[in-house]
Amino acid sequence: MRFARLLLFVGLATATPALAAESGGIRELYVAPTISFFQWEEQGGGARLLREEGPLFGVAGGIRVELLRAASGQALILSGVTELYGGVVSYDGQTQSVTPNKDKRPFTTDVGYVGGRGGIDLGWTIPLRTSRFGPLVGLEYRAWMRDLQGGSARDSNGVPFQVSGSTEFWQNVTLRLGLRWNEIPLGGGWSAFGEGGAVYPFYTSNQVDVPDYGTLTITPEGEWSPRGELGVRNKSFRFAVTYEGLRFGRSPTVKGYYQPDSSGDLVVFSVGYCFR
Fold first, then answer.
1. pTM assigned to the model
2. Are the CB atoms for 135 and 123 separated by under 8 Å?
3. Which of 9, 65, 213, 239 has its CA 20 to 30 A from that of 182?
4. What is the Cα–Cα distance from 39 to 50, expressed in whole angstroms?
């Protein structure tokens, strides 16, 4: 049931612009395989506690619909985007314990990720010669499963010991603000597009499965993070690179557990087919 809300939001992010298209014109409709270069770090006490990095693979889809157009050529655009992804990345960190002064040892393993996102936004576009430019505001729901694999580490005497794995389920809802520039002519049937702005996760939760306590829900503090996209397209194909930052402050402590200051970076490359 953890991903039920994700599937619901993904459906809404796809269906809302599609339903709006009945009363307006579809400006863009595409599907695209994606490869993301992902990095995640956690900080505590002025030091890095862990780093995860590696590729994630997925598929995304997007739609833009013109809801209305003024006599001046300005227009209200509704956009929707969905993506599902997964992969295995490397983990370089340390063992964890809620026992005070417990010796923490270096630990490396793998982390499996499965997740997705769905978002919608409204943008007001202004004609700028033959291109269109303007502000946007939107909402996005993102959820992902983080499965830290168990393994072995060595204590201060060099004796190996077993380290248990853990599973986390993250979800957040973010506000997105930015500026978008579309339909920039390049010649030969190609055009460029770009977007820049910031996201703020105003709701974030991390459900951690802990053997001794069951499932604990931790609530990291969301922080403003940058987001941007650049790409080109023609009638049939769309190429884009997207950057999105994930920034969270330290959470309150729950039964000895807390989420430290955390940051993530996603650089996503997509090669899509355009239906419109």
1. 0.86
2. yes
3. 9
4. 11
Cβ-contact 259, 221 below 8 angstroms: no
First-to-final CA distance of the chain = 34
Q: CB within 8 A of 100, min separation 6: which ones?
A: none
Residue 98: pLDDT band with limits 50, 70, 90: very low
Interatomic CA distance for residues 9 and 96, integer angstroms: 34
90, 110 in Cβ contact below 8 A? yes
- What is the DSSP secondary-structure string of 177-202? EEEEEEEEEEETTEEEEEEEEEEEEE
Locate all alpha helices (DSSP H) within the chain, ordered by sequence. Answer: 4-20
Predicted confidence (pLDDT) per residue in 171-205, tens digit = 999 999 999 999 999 999 999 999 999 999 999 99
- Name which of 249, 149, 265 is nearest 206 in CA terms: 249
The domain spans of the chain are 4-274
For the structural domain made of 4-274, what CATH number should be given? Answer: 2.40.128.100
User: Left (φ > 0), alpha (ψ -120 to 50) or beta: where does 27 sit?
Assistant: alpha
Contact between 77 and 66 (Cβ < 8 Å)? yes
pLDDT digits (tens, 9 = 90+) for 231-273: 999 999 999 999 999 999 999 998 888 999 999 999 999 999 9
Name the region of 15 (left: φ>0; alpha: ψ -120 to 50; beta: rest).
Answer: alpha
